[in-house]
Design goal:
The protein is an all-alpha fold. The protein is built from 20 helices and no strands.
Length: about 375
């Protein structure tokens, strides 16, 4: 088909010619076949996925595309339900941040009515912890995502959030930080508060320090890996806030810059036009879907973004792109990974995705005009 598109005719078996004719990819003239509009579309889909799908029969490939596209649309439709059901519980200033949370809930592919009921209950618990409602909404998503018993962590989280506000100020995302620390305690059962206090002196955000502390790894090792990522992404100049957050995220998930830096940069380049202020962070998130090549990931992001637009999940290109990325990150890896399966994401990696999608990328896109973006030091 690629040869026909350029006016040439490449050697092919009679079976291949017949297959393409039967599926409407080429015209039926045996002497001078030409590629059809259907064929051009099929060729584009094949080329962006060549390394993964070349061994697949064409019909199996088409069926997989249809399944994945249908799955993305089904999740987006469920997200619409969550926005309608949970919108009334969110204060006006927090309502935009409910959009990525609605996609996160829909990505769990469980009974929507039950999920909404559970989330309302957890939101009721975090609502009385004080501070910014956007912070409490983020914490509620983290607690709900892991099914933590609110009755057991409510009082310890309240205490820790008060400590965080004393350290970082009244406007700090204290409830989110407390949730991250209590959901990933030390072996003795206590939250890694001392590690958080040390790390927050060097990280771009309070949530980033909490996520690093939640890994349970030694602080010097964390800082060393983060420095390597800063050098890989930021070069010799002062790193931008986005690069700082991306480096922290990649440290949390344990990515090796030697293996993954080029992948992150390729994805960031593909996102720059849609997300100029958060392309590195979103590229870092997408890079962990290492069962797909960057070109295919970006293609799925484009498709998912269009689905989010058709469902009217958000008003702007940037917001729709972040929601599209969330939809893609929710796709089951087993659909693409073949018989060997795909590696399981750790619980912390999954929560880190939620935090950077919501509290960094979406927060910057929905900040009140004139207000400061999420703090970066």
């Amino acid at each position: 088909m690629a040869a026909l598109q350029t006016g040439a005719r490449a050697p092919a078996s009679p079976e291949a010619w017949q297959l393409l004719r039967d599926r409407g990819c080429i015209t039926a003239d045996p002497l001078s076949p030409t590629i059809t509009d259907v064929g051009v579309h099929v060729l584009q889909e094949l080329e962006v996925r060549a390394g993964r799908v070349d061994p697949m029969p064409l019909d199996d490939f088409a069926a997989q595309l249809g399944r994945v596209y249908g799955d993305l649309d089904s999740v987006a439709r469920t997200s619409e339900y969550f926005l309608a059901e949970l919108g009334p519980i969110a204060p006006p200033e927090a309502l935009p941040r409910l959009r990525p949370i609605s996609v996160g809930l829909a990505n769990r592919r469980e009974t929507p009515e039950e999920l909404a009921k559970e989330f309302r209950a957890i939101w009721g618990g975090t609502e009385v912890m004080g501070g910014d409602p956007r912070d409490r909404l983020m914490a509620a998503e983290l607690i709900h995502a892991v099914g933590a018993p609110m009755e057991k962590i409510y009082s310890p989280m309240m205490t820790t959030s008060m400590v965080v506000r004393e350290l970082a100020g009244a406007n700090a995302p204290a409830v989110t930080v407390a949730a991250l620390l209590h959901l990933h305690p030390l072996p003795n059962g206590t939250p890694p508060l001392a590690e958080y206090q040390t790390l927050r002196k060097t990280t771009a955000t309070e949530e980033g320090a909490a996520m690093l502390a939640a890994t349970g790894r030694e602080v010097p090792a964390l800082l060393a890996l983060r420095s390597r990522w800063l050098a890989a992404l930021g070069g010799t100049g002062a790193p931008t806030p986005d690069v700082q957050v991306a480096a922290g995220y990649l440290t949390v998930v344990g990515s090796d810059p030697t293996e993954a830096a080029a992948r992150v940069q390729a994805l960031a380049g593909g996102l720059k036009a849609r997300l100029p202020a958060s392309s590195e962070v979103m590229a870092a998130v997408l890079s962990t879907a290492n069962w797909l090549e960057p070109g295919e990931i970006l293609d799925w992001v484009s498709k998912a973004t269009e689905i989010a637009r058709n469902r009217k999940l958000a008003p702007s290109v940037g917001e729709l792109t972040v929601l599209g990325i969330s939809l893609v990150m929710g796709l089951p890896p087993s659909e693409f990974s073949g018989p060997g399966g795909a590696p399981e994401r750790s619980r912390l990696s999954s929560l880190a995705n939620l935090v950077v999608l919501n509290s960094w990328a979406y927060a910057r896109l929905t900040a009140v005009p004139g207000a400061s973006p999420p703090a970066a030091r």
